[in-house]
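[Discussion] Sanity-checking designs against the backbone

I'm trying to build intuition for which residues belong where. Below is a C-alpha cell string of 593 positions. I'd appreciate it if someone posts a full sequence so I can compare it with mine line by line.
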C-alpha cells in the first residue's frame, strides 16, 4: 500500500529512540518488539481499515521514519520520508475460533519474532483478521524504535476515530525530530545531566535489588501472567482517594509499593515506572518511543499508609522529572557507580500504569529489558500490548486468572489497565519467589490493603495482619550491608568460584545502626588465601564484579585482605586476622598496602 503527502525531514535521534535502538540491536526481537490487537468496528470495510492506516502514516512522522546506519554501528540519525509503502496482510476465514481475540493476539505475537530492519522497514506489521470478508481485528507487531505502548494507544484511538468518520485535529504533541531538537538545547542537556545525578543518588545509596533473597537468581525468568479484575478493589480505591484527597493512580502506586517493600523486607521500594514520562502535555499523545524509565525510590519508613501517600506524590513527581537522559551516558555512570559500590543494580521491579492512556490496551505483558536487559537493570522498557477486554460495570467482585508465561528480566512486573469501574491489572511474579498460591495471595493482599485504607489510616507495622502477606524470611546468614541485603557466605562462595577455588572468608562488621537484633548497615571484608598467586585486591574485585549479574544477594566487599595460607579454623574471622597480610585494599583502584 502506498502513502504520500507527508513532509520529508531528517535529524538526530531522540534519547528515547537511541535507548530502544540500543536494545533492538542487542536483544532478541520477541523480547523488544511490541504488539497490539485493535477491534474493528462492525460494518467496517477492508478498504476503509487500510485507508485509515494510510492516513495515520501521513499524519505521524514516526511511521515514516527509518534509521540509516552502517553495519556494526548504532544509528545516530533519523530520516522522515514524504512517501512510501507498507504492507497489510488480510487473513480471511469462513469462521473464526471461539476465542477470536486470542487468535488475533497469537498472530500479533508471532509477528514480533522477526527483527525490524531499522534502515528500511515500515514500523508496523499489520494483519487484518476477517470473517467472510468482514475485518474483525487488526493484529500488529510494532517497532519499539518509534512506538511504545502509549504511542500504540494513540494510534488505536485515532484509527477508530477515522473509521467512525471523524475529522482528527492537527497533532499537538512533539514529533520525534522536534523532541530531539529540544533535548539537544542547553536546557535539554541540563535536564539530562540532572537526571543522571538523580539516578546516581539512588543507585549509589538504594538497595541494589529489591528482591535480594534466597531463590532470586538469573537475569531472565520465565514467568506466568496473573490478572486481577475486581470491582471491590475499584470501589476501595475510589474511597481511599476520596478520604485522603489523593489521585487514584497515586493511591494505587502507594499501596503497591508498600506491599512490595513489605514482602521484600526493604526500607525503600525502588521501581521503574516507564509510562510516567508521558506526564507532560506536549508528550501525552506523542507517537514516538518515550521509553525511558522514571526511576521511583520511595522510602517506606513512615508510620502509616497516609503518611506514605503524602511522600509518594513528591517521590513520583521527582522520578518523572528525571526520566529524560542520554542512555549511553547513563550506562557509563551506572558502570562507574556500581564498580565503586561493588554492586549490580537490578531493574527487577516495574510498575507500568497505562490506565490513563487513550484507548488503553488492557492486557500488556512486558519485559523490562530497556537499557539493561539480561543484566536486569536498565533505563528503558519494553511494553507489549495485547488483547483488548471490556471491563463492564457488571464485572467480577474479585477474579484472579492465570495466563501465558513470558521470559522477563524482572522479578515483579505490573501493568495497570484500568482503575474503574474495575481495578484491572496484570502482574508477573518470579515463580522462584512466589509460588502460585503466594502470587494470588499477594494480589488479594493488595485488595485488602485498599479496603482497609478506604475507611481509616493503616499502620504499616500492621501490613501482615491487614493483607495476609508476610515478609520474606532470609535466615541468619543474611545481613543488611550498605543499604542492601546480602549473604556473606554466598559472597565468599561466589568470590571463591570467581578466583578458581581459592579459599575465601567474608565477614560483615556491625558498625551500622541496629534495630536491636539485626545489623542494618556496616561493610563486608573478604579474606583470601592466594598461596603463591600474585593476586591483588583490584583483580579480586574485578573477578567478583564479573560474576555478579544474576546474583542479587551478592555484594562486593568493601575491603579485600590477601594472605598466603588459610588458617586451620577457616570459618572464624579471628583466625584469619592472625594470618600475615600480603596485600590489602578496596579493589576499586590499584591501591596495594
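Best answer:
Here's mine. Compare freely.
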Amino acid at each position: 500500500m502506498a502513502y504520500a503527502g507527508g513532509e520529508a525531514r531528517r535529524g538526530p535521534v531522540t534519547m528515547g529512540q537511541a535507548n530502544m535502538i540500543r536494545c533492538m540491536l542487542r536483544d532478541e526481537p520477541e523480547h523488544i518488539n511490541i504488539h497490539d490487537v485493535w477491534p474493528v468496528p462492525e460494518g467496517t470495510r477492508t478498504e476503509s481499515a487500510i485507508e485509515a492506516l494510510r492516513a495515520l502514516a501521513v499524519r505521524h512522522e514516526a511511521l515514516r521514519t527509518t534509521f540509516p546506519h552502517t553495519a556494526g554501528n548504532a544509528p545516530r540519525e533519523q530520516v522522515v520520508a514524504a512517501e512510501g509503502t507498507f504492507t497489510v496482510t488480510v487473513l480471511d476465514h469462513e469462521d473464526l475460533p471461539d476465542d477470536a481475540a486470542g487468535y488475533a493476539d497469537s498472530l500479533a505475537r508471532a509477528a514480533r519474532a522477526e527483527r525490524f530492519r531499522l534502515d528500511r522497514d515500515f514500523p508496523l506489521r499489520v494483519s487484518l483478521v476477517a470473517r467472510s470478508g468482514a475485518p474483525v481485528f487488526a493484529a500488529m507487531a510494532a517497532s519499539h524504535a518509534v512506538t511504545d505502548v502509549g504511542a500504540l494507544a494513540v494510534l488505536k484511538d485515532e484509527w477508530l476515530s477515522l473509521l467512525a468518520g471523524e475529522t482528527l485535529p492537527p497533532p499537538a504533541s512533539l514529533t520525534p525530530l522536534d523532541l530531539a531538537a529540544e533535548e539537544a538545547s542547553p536546557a535539554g542537556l541540563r535536564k539530562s545531566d540532572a537526571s543522571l545525578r538523580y539516578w546516581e543518588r539512588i543507585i549509589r545509596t538504594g538497595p541494589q535489588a529489591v528482591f535480594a533473597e534466597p531463590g532470586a537468581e538469573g537475569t531472565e525468568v520465565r514467568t506466568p501472567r496473573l490478572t486481577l479484575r475486581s470491582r471491590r478493589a475499584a470501589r476501595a480505591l475510589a474511597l481511599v482517594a476520596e478520604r485522603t484527597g489523593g489521585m487514584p493512580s497515586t493511591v494505587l502506586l502507594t499501596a503497591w509499593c508498600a506491599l512490595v517493600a513489605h514482602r521484600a523486607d526493604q526500607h525503600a521500594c525502588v521501581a521503574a515506572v516507564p509510562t510516567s514520562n508521558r506526564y507532560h502535555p506536549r508528550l501525552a499523545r506523542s507517537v514516538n518511543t518515550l521509553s525511558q524509565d522514571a526511576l521511583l525510590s520511595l522510602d517506606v519508613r513512615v508510620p502509616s499508609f497516609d503518611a506514605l501517600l503524602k511522600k509518594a506524590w513528591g517521590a513520583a513527581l521527582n522520578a518523572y522529572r528525571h526520566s529524560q537522559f542520554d542512555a549511553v551516558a547513563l550506562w557509563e555512570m551506572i558502570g562507574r557507580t556500581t564498580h565503586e559500590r561493588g554492586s549490580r543494580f537490578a531493574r527487577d521491579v516495574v510498575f507500568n500504569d497505562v490506565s490513563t492512556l487513550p484507548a488503553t490496551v488492557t492486557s500488556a505483558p512486558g519485559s523490562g529489558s530497556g537499557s539493561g536487559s539480561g543484566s536486569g537493570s536498565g533505563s528503558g522498557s519494553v511494553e507489549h500490548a495485547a488483547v483488548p477486554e471490556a471491563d463492564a460495570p457488571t464485572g467480577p467482585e474479585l477474579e484472579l486468572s492465570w495466563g501465558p508465561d513470558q521470559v522477563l528480566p524482572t522479578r515483579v512486573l505490573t501493568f495497570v489497565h484500568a482503575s474503574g469501574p474495575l481495578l484491572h491489572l496484570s502482574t508477573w511474579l518470579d515463580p522462584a519467589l512466589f509460588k502460585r498460591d503466594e502470587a494470588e495471595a499477594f494480589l488479594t493482599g493488595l485488595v485488602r490493603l485498599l479496603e482497609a485504607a478506604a475507611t481509616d489510616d493503616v499502620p504499616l507495622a500492621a501490613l501482615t495482619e491487614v493483607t495476609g502477606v508476610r515478609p520474606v524470611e532470609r535466615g541468619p546468614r543474611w545481613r543488611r550491608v550498605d543499604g542492601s541485603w546480602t549473604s556473606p557466605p554466598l559472597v565468599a562462595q561466589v568470590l571463591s568460584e570467581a578466583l578458581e577455588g581459592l579459599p575465601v572468608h567474608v565477614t560483615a562488621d556491625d558498625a551500622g545502626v541496629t534495630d536491636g537484633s539485626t545489623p542494618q548497615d556496616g561493610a563486608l571484608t573478604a579474606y583470601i588465601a592466594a598461596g603463591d598467586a600474585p593476586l591483588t585486591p583490584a583483580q579480586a574485585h574485578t573477578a567478583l564484579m564479573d560474576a555478579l549479574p544474576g546474583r542479587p544477594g551478592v555484594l562486593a566487599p568493601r575491603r579485600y585482605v590477601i594472605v598466603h595460607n588459610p588458617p586451620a579454623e577457616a570459618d572464624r574471622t579471628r583466625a584469619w586476622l592472625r594470618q600475615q597480610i600480603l596485600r590489602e585494599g578496596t579493589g576499586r583502584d590499584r591501591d596495594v598496602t
